[in-house]
Design brief:
Blueprint: H1 3-17, H2 19-25, E1 29-30, E2 41-52, E3 55-66, H3 70-85, E4 95-109, E5 116-128
Helix pairs in contact: 2-3
Length: 129
């Protein structure tokens, strides 16, 4: 399994088992949300993977979407994601996680005027076992 996929699986597992986060999004954490998803929810977003001297560098992006709770709810979800993943000791299949660090977060109102999107970016470094 590639380091990128192993990291994605470990991140998804950590987020799905985090009580603070699942309380906010009611376990609606998606890799590929289908159709009319109930708000609020969290999605795995874009990622970039690059060669690193001893392994791979990964830049992960996650997005949350909320309506009724507005910007405050989006910020609470982003903080729960940060708390669950920043410096987390995740176990990856076939690879070792060297570090996983918070980079930045932002919130914005979507064009529909009622949906808020929160975006959080993290950086990870992995090595092959």
């Amino acid at each position: 399994m590639s380091a990128d996929l192993a990291l994605q699986k470990a991140v998804f597992a950590r987020l799905s088992s985090d009580a603070a986060l699942t309380a906010l999004v009611a376990a609606r954490i998606h890799d590929n949300p289908q159709g009319d998803v109930v708000h609020p929810y969290l999605t795995l977003g874009e990622n970039e993977t690059r060669d690193w001297p001893a392994g791979m560098e990964h830049r992960l992006t996650l997005h949350c979407f909320t309506r009724g709770g507005g910007r405050a709810e989006a910020k609470a979800i982003l903080e729960a994601v940060r708390a669950a993943l920043h410096d987390a000791a995740l176990v990856l299949e076939g690879h070792s996680l060297v570090n996983l660090r918070f980079l930045d977060a932002q919130t914005r109102r979507e064009a529909d005027g009622i949906t808020w999107r929160g975006t959080i970016r993290l950086r990870a470094v992995t090595e092959e076992d």
